[in-house]
Structures are given as structure tokens and as C-alpha cells.
């Protein structure tokens, strides 16, 4: 007797990248002003707030620092950088363009790897 679940074409459950989700939540909080310029970001507090372990938070913070949204001060902590209204406007405009290009590329020539990354990005 075969297992009926193995006979149908049920889509596989997607593995979501937790660090990516944390990254997006933090960047939105920075851009919306929930995290103020100069505010110290504490990994443990963020992890507890989002209900995740420290690992995805650390990964997200490293990525945010590389992109210039936050900065680390040795033996002091990680802090939110300040942005002018013009810089914030540019960031939003760039995000809109990139998201539109990614969607267009996926629609024109659906690359399985690109689609997977877009699904993970949420």
C-alpha cells in the first residue's frame, strides 16, 4: 500500500530564511523611525522581541552594517545611523525600482533559482 501523500503533487514547504525576515523587519523599523538615529540596537532584545534566536539577528545586523544602515563601536555596541529625508527618499525609490525589476525578470524568464530567492525574501 502506497502512502497517498506521496502520490499527489503537493508543493513542498518552503524553507524561509529567518535572517532575511529579521533583516527586513529591522530595516523597515530604521526607515520608519521606530529605531531612532543613534539608538543602540541590542541583539538579545531584538531576538526576544521577534521571537527568534540571536543568530538570525546577528546575521541581519552584519548585513545592515555592510549596507550602511547601522554601525558598530568596539566595546560599546551597534547603533542606528542617521539619514536625511532626502537619503530616505532615495532609499525607498531604489527599493521600488529593484523590486519592480526583480518581478519583471521573473515574469519574463522564470529562473527557478531567482523565484526561490524571491519566495524566501517574502
UniProtKB/TrEMBL annotation:
Occurrences of domain HTH gntR-type (ranges): 16-83
The entry's keywords: DNA-binding, Transcription, Transcription regulation
PROSITE patterns: HTH_GNTR
Molecular-function GO terms, alphabetical: DNA-binding transcription factor activity; sequence-specific DNA binding
UniProt KW GTP-binding keyword: no
Official protein name in the record: HTH gntR-type domain-containing protein
Organism of provenance: marine sediment metagenome
Amino acid at each position: 500500500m502506497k502512502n497517498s501523500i506521496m502520490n499527489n503533487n503537493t508543493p513542498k514547504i518552503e524553507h524561509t530564511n529567518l535572517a532575511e525576515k529579521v533583516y527586513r523587519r529591522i530595516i523597515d523599523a530604521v526607515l520608519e523611525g521606530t529605531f531612532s538615529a543613534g539608538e543602540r540596537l541590542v541583539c538579545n532584545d531584538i531576538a526576544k522581541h521577534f521571537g527568534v534566536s540571536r543568530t538570525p539577528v546577528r546575521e541581519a545586523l552584519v548585513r545592515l552594517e555592510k549596507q550602511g544602515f547601522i554601525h558598530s563601536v568596539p566595546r560599546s555596541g551597534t547603533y542606528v545611523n542617521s539619514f536625511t529625508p532626502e537619503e530616505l527618499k532615495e532609499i525607498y525609490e531604489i527599493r521600488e525600482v529593484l523590486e519592480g525589476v526583480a518581478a519583471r525578470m521573473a515574469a519574463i524568464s522564470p529562473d527557478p533559482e531567482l523565484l526561490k530567492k524571491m519566495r524566501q525574501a517574502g
